Amino acid sequence: MLKRKDLLGIQELGCDEILEILDTAESLQEISSRPIKKVPTLRGKTVINLFFEASTRTRTSFEIAGKRLSADVVNISASTSSVSKGETLIDTARTLDAMAADCVVIRHSSSGAPATIARMTKAAVINGGDGAHEHPTQALLDALTIRQRKGHLDGLKVAIVGDITHSRVARSNIHLLTKFGSHVWLCSAPTLMPVGVEQMICDNSQFLHTTNSIDEAVADADVIMMLRVQFERMSESFFPSVREYFHYFGLSRARVHLAKQDVIIMHPGPMNRGVEISSEVADGPYSVIFDQVSAGVAVRMSVLYLMLGA
Ligand code: CP
């Protein structure tokens, strides 16, 4: 069992905790291929999905994960909750606590919102993505996908390409992969690379590299992780045109051939096809994008089990 009340980010997790989550996810994966995909482990527990931002993968896979473990799962979205009438985040959290929720999964546009809720509630809080801060279960499902394809998480070259500035997925993956000694190459347009990103992981800075050349980032890479251009978070133009963006930073088949022969192509979704990745690459033989989605159910079952199952 995890010896922590909340899962707020990868930064505070030790390698032993990450491996425990991945090992448990692997052992739970089999449940999803059974004719009756349900075990009674979390019977009597209540999980609340509190999503203040849109989501398909994270919200649905937490719901499926909870239900496969027999928890009662309730979904709340901002538009249908009393938040739309002006209720504060903290009053919302206290209200859910008064209903004896065992776990709250929260997604919010503000970095730190899950940590605020965690301080105000007795329930376990899981960060389902907060602003540009962290998306811990995404990095865990990415790590499970990589480990199942490559056999290990150390010594790999992982290129993370795209809108780094707005990406909580990039931050969580940087923490996780460098903890295990993989080299992470961040690549983006200069306008989409956060200033001072190299200082983000002082302890393991030798494992973090930055470049504005996608060809340099993907050369001999074991893993290429493409990031969505997050147009909804941009109040100004960060590059001249989508056509130019794909020309300089998009993943085409020709660029895939610069990587190792057994490279895997990842994307957290949702994808902007033709912007950061071509359809022939997204649907091609190196793509593991839908394996990531399957791994997401197992990882979220694992996290719920390790946090609530005792
Ligand atoms: N990867 C991810 O977080 O996807 P959703 O926004 O669909 O949850």
Brief overview:
By secondary structure, the chain is α/β, with parallel strands linked by helices. Helices cover 36% and strands 15% of the residues.
| Residues in helices, as a percent range | 25-40%
Structural class: alpha/beta
Overall pLDDT: 95
Strand order of the largest sheet: 7-6-5-8-9
Shape: globular
N-C termini distance: 7 Å
Give the beta-strand count: 9
% residues in beta strands: 5-15%
The major pleated sheet works out as: 5 strands, parallel
Quaternary status? single chain
The number of helical elements comes to 11
Ions, cofactors and other ligands present here are: phosphoric acid mono(formamide)ester
The SSE string, one letter per element, is HEHEHEHEHEHEEHEHHEHH
Radius of gyration of CA atoms, rounded to a whole number: 19 Å
Contiguous runs where pLDDT drops below 50 for at least 5 residues: none
